[in-house]
Amino acid sequence: MQRIERDFNRFRRIVRGQIKGNLRKYMSQGEMIGRQGRRMVSIPMPQIDIPRFRYGAKQSGGVGQGEGNPGDPIGQGEPQPGQGQAGSEPGEHILEVDISLEELAQIMGEELQLPNIQPKGQKNIVTEKAKYNRVRRVGPESLRHFKRTYKEALRRQLSSGTYDPQRPVIIPIKDDTRYRSWTDVPAPESNAVIIYMMDVSGSMGNEQKELVRHTAFWIETWLRSQYHEIEIIYIAHDAAAKEVDRETFYHLREGGGTRISSAYKLCNEIIDARYSPEEWNIYPFHFSDGDNWGDGDTDLCFKVLEQELLPKSNQFCYGQVHSLYGSGSFIHALRKQFANHELLVASEIGSRDQIYDAIKVFLGRGK
């Protein structure tokens, strides 16, 4: 059994190394999103073989046999053209390895060097946790309290006069054995809410929404590892904003213009109505192609951010995806206005390869 556990732990270390080494590829391809279960995720990777000797066919000669002179390089002869027939040898297979979302988040944090988040909100849900603060006479052997057992045996031998200082051998009997025990104590848990906002106007196509969906998967994976519970709100907007469910959020497409301030106002209304900043850790994420309606709407966005959203949020994140139809100007105005603000971060996500860098920007401050 110990050998099985040792081999299994070695295999898990190899898998972790494979995932860490190819994390950027997994983030860009989005293969894991369609393979996730309730608390597990399936990761495709090349089959891992343990190194071993491979022997040639019998009667094929040995080392140093055959034609040639000393010093000639060892080769396989002239390459022969293929005959176009089906082969009989197995090819490379893809192995799917299941790991928990918690372990995936740990690997992600190590590879991206993400700091653990210091929660801002106070207690929200009180749960029961076991605290080992008692000792009793019965229990499983795994919880045997060796120090207390030794003391009981020593006390018994001293009181009965069987203790010999010249030969201080302490032999516990069944009545001497003590076990650690626990009591359930209330423990406050910090919770968080993620508020996703996305432009769903005509300039945002399916590829842009896929970028947002892949980015959101990694955001949620990390934040779920940092908080006891996560609630997620979805806001879709063009010239007007509305709260929708997850399915609608990623597949809705409108044909109107874009007014970003409508999403920021609705986000602020939801926070005021449901999520007190004193009790919740609030993470608004906004994704768009950088297009915004004129007539001072960008200035209105800045006003809502500065006066309402930023003071209430742990951090506000803006991700700008590339679109052939979007102007891409909003991120430049945002960075100029909030250049030195520690609670606002912005990143461009021009392609799937840039998801890795965007996640590091969004989550790298430990807010």
Mind explaining what this structure looks like?
- The chain has 367 residues and is α/β, with parallel strands linked by helices.
- The protein has 3 domains: 1-48 and 93-113, no CATH class; 126-186, no CATH class; 190-363, Rossmann fold (3-Layer(aba) Sandwich), CATH 3.40.50.
- It has 10 helices and 10 strands.
- It has helices spanning 2-21, 23-29, 101-112, 146-160, 206-226, 246-251, 260-274, 297-312, 330-337, 355-363, and strands at residues 40-46, 94-100, 125-136, 179-189, 191-199, 229-237, 241-244, 281-288, 316-321, 344-349.
- The strands form 3 sheets. Strands 7-6-5-8-9-10 form a 6-stranded mixed sheet, sandwiched between helices. A two-stranded antiparallel ribbon has the order 1-2.
- The chain is flat.
What CATH architecture label of the largest domain applies? 3-Layer(aba) Sandwich
CATH class placement of the largest domain: Alpha Beta
Biggest sheet: strands side by side, in what order? 7-6-5-8-9-10
Mean pLDDT, rounded to whole units? 81
The tally of domains stands at 3
> Superfamily at the CATH H level of the largest domain?
von Willebrand factor, type A domain
Rounded radius of gyration (Å): 31 Å
Record field, number of beta strands: 10
Number of helical stretches of at least 4 residues: 10
Query: Which fold name fills CATH's third level, the topology of the largest domain?
Result: Rossmann fold
Sequence of secondary-structure elements: HHEEHEHEEHEEHHEHEHEH
